[in-house]
Specification:
Length: 151
């Protein structure tokens, strides 16, 4: 069984139920059979902070809702069972999540959970750049959200 470590840093100024984030991140990682002793960082920020990161790292203007920064690019490391495996960081704009949640008549926690699942799947190598890959990613994302809702 995997030992998943999730570190949450809320710099957004908006209260978010961190236990939901902990459970979702753990479920997504464990359900995808990631390396034992996996570590993921989650940073909750405001729109100004994510916009700066979006421009700096993606060369795209304006804020976004979630960014993922994978730290271990070497796939072979995932099979090495000695030592901790640092998967990477997920940065979520809580302001953007709140606006999207209101537009879709969801709670803030539901939208943040969606963004967390999405960001985690990106860290694990999933993408939505082609229709086939998008279908797989959306399916895994939906499975993760359903499981966390039932937990």
């Amino acid at each position: 069984r995997n030992t998943v470590s999730v570190e949450i840093n809320n710099e957004s100024g908006i209260a978010v139920e961190e236990s939901i984030l902990q459970r979702l991140a753990s479920f997504v990682l464990e359900s995808l059979h990631v390396h034992t002793q996996t570590e993921v960082g989650i940073m909750l920020v405001d729109e100004a902070a994510i916009e700066q990161l979006h421009v700096q790292w993606m060369d795209e203007p304006g804020p976004t809702d979630v960014l993922s920064f994978a730290l271990d690019e070497d796939e072979d490391e995932c099979d090495d069972d000695d030592g901790e495996h640092i998967l990477g960081d997920i940065v979520i704009s809580v302001e953007t999540a709140r606006r999207q949640a209101r537009a879709e008549e969801k709670t803030l926690e539901q939208e943040v959970a969606l963004l967390l699942a999405h960001g985690t799947l990106h860290l694990l190598g999933h993408d939505h750049d082609e229709p086939e890959r998008e279908a797989v990613m959306w399916k895994r994302q939906d499975e993760a959200l359903k499981a966390i809702a039932e937990a």
